[in-house]
Design a protein that fits this description.
This protein is mainly α and about 180 residues long. The protein is built from 5 helices and no strands. The mean pLDDT is about 85.
Length: about 180
């Protein structure tokens, strides 16, 4: 009933605003949940790759330090004998092995990190686009049917409105 929609447009607009806000909230949560899960998984992969790289670097640093201690610092030497003996050679081998492993793994770790960062950037852009599109569609949904649904909710909340609409409908039928 267009006349009732005009008369109760203020109440209907309030009802449409409440519905729009609720739909926006639901859409935002659904879209955000989807992308947050993907982004969190990618960030976890990045953290794992960075931790692996840091662990290898720590092995290199520690083994080099121990080898240098054996070679020249009696205060931190395990044997307290300076020189390039078996402890020095063992620690130097460990440092070289860790450095080789780091050198071998670094390109793959960097590629993983870069790929995950690209995915995260892409997903954030997709999320923004989906949110903008969905929110624009929800805000634009003010056609006759949505206004009629809002009038129905206003009628349920206020019985006097329902009586007026029925009276007006009966009046129009009588005129016809």
């Amino acid at each position: 009933l267009p006349m009732a929609q005009v008369i109760y447009s203020g109440s209907m607009n309030d009802e449409l605003s409440k519905t729009t806000t609720s739909r926006i909230h639901e859409a935002t949560n659904a879209i955000t949940r989807t992308y947050d899960a993907k982004i969190a998984a990618a960030q976890k992969e990045i953290a794992t790759a960075q931790a692996k790289q840091a662990s290898l670097q720590k092995q290199v640093t520690n083994s080099r330090f121990l080898a240098d201690c054996e070679a020249g610092l009696q205060s931190c030497s395990q044997t307290h004998k300076l020189g390039r003996g078996p402890y020095y050679k063992r620690d130097a081998r460990r440092a070289a092995a860790a450095a080789a492993e780091l050198k071998r793994a670094r390109p793959q770790l960097a590629a993983t990190i870069a790929a995950d960062q690209r995915k995260i950037a892409l997903w954030r852009a997709e999320e923004r686009g989906q949110l903008a599109s969905r929110l624009a569609a929800i805000r634009a949904d003010r056609d006759f049917l949505s206004r009629q649904a809002a009038l129905d909710r206003v009628e349920r909340a206020n019985p006097a409105v329902r009586k007026y609409v029925l009276f007006f409908l009966a009046f129009l039928i009588a005129l016809d």
